[in-house]
From TrEMBL:
<feature type="transmembrane region" description="Helical">
    <location>
        <begin position="167"/>
        <end position="187"/>
    </location>
</feature>
<protein>
    <submittedName>
        <fullName>Membrane-anchored protein</fullName>
    </submittedName>
</protein>
<feature type="transmembrane region" description="Helical">
    <location>
        <begin position="94"/>
        <end position="117"/>
    </location>
</feature>
<dbReference type="Pfam" id="PF06570">
    <property type="entry name" value="DUF1129"/>
</dbReference>
<feature type="transmembrane region" description="Helical">
    <location>
        <begin position="199"/>
        <end position="217"/>
    </location>
</feature>
<keyword id="KW-0812">Transmembrane</keyword>
<keyword id="KW-1133">Transmembrane helix</keyword>
<feature type="transmembrane region" description="Helical">
    <location>
        <begin position="129"/>
        <end position="155"/>
    </location>
</feature>
<dbReference type="InterPro" id="IPR009214">
    <property type="entry name" value="DUF1129"/>
</dbReference>
<keyword id="KW-0472">Membrane</keyword>
Length: 221
């Protein structure tokens, strides 16, 4: 089975776990999946093997702690040490898709905003290449940092009995709001340097939609 099929099967089988076993396994699953350097295919295969073994033990009245010990993090670390790293040729397309998605959604959002605003005010459809590059750089940094920060929050909350979900949500929301403010400030105060070109909202919306569709089809392949 490929990665998508393994994840889908994993989601289905996890519903059969008891609440106690599900919490134990879910923490371990997230902890392993957050190790981006590891081979995704082999990580999902190992997670499926652990889940099948856990379900079998559950039928015999055993708990996850009975089978894998009272320290799931240590057990997960042992598994991680045995898993190979992801190949570079598979990592590069992953980051390329992230950048592509940022560009596509930026174009789509710009097109929608210009369409809405043009119904009420006159909108300047010209874009300055330098301003656009700086805004794109700011958005990329914001998205990258936000993803890293949220994953770090999740990582640090694993294997803890009492998690303060509300506090984690507040922290994530604060970082998101602060990052968006920085992006808006960069877009507002970056000077126009170099050439500017006309980019109507129709072109922006269509180009963004086509790029998103290409990335979506490529991901499904």
């Amino acid at each position: 089975m490929n990665v998508d099929m393994l994840i889908e099967e994993n989601n289905r089988k996890r519903e059969l776990l008891t609440p106690e076993n599900e919490k134990y396994y879910d923490d371990m699953l997230i902890y392993i999946r957050l190790q981006w350097r590891l081979s995704e295919q082999q990580s999902e295969e190992v997670l499926m093997e652990i889940l099948d073994h856990l379900l079998q033990g559950q039928e015999e009245g055993k708990t996850a702690k009975d089978m894998f010990g009272h320290n799931p993090k240590a057990f997960a670390d042992e598994i991680i040490e045995q898993l190979p790293n992801e190949k570079k040729r598979e990592i590069i397309p992953f980051y390329a898709r992230i950048i592509g998605n940022i560009v596509s959604w930026s174009l789509i959002i710009r097109g929608i905003l210009h369409l809405i605003l043009s119904q009420f005010i006159e909108v300047n459809s010209e874009i300055n290449l330098f301003q656009m590059a700086m805004s794109f750089l700011a958005i990329t940094c914001f998205v990258s940092f936000s993803i890293w920060f949220i994953l770090r929050l999740v990582h640090n909350s694993l294997f803890k009995e009492n998690r303060n979900i509300k506090l984690l949500t507040i922290k994530a929301g604060f970082v998101g709001a602060a990052g968006m403010a920085v992006v808006l400030l960069v877009a507002k105060f970056t000077p126009e340097i170099g050439p500017s070109y006309n980019l109507p909202w129709q072109v922006s919306l269509i180009a963004g939609a086509i790029l998103w569709l290409i990335l979506f089809v490529e991901k499904k392949r």
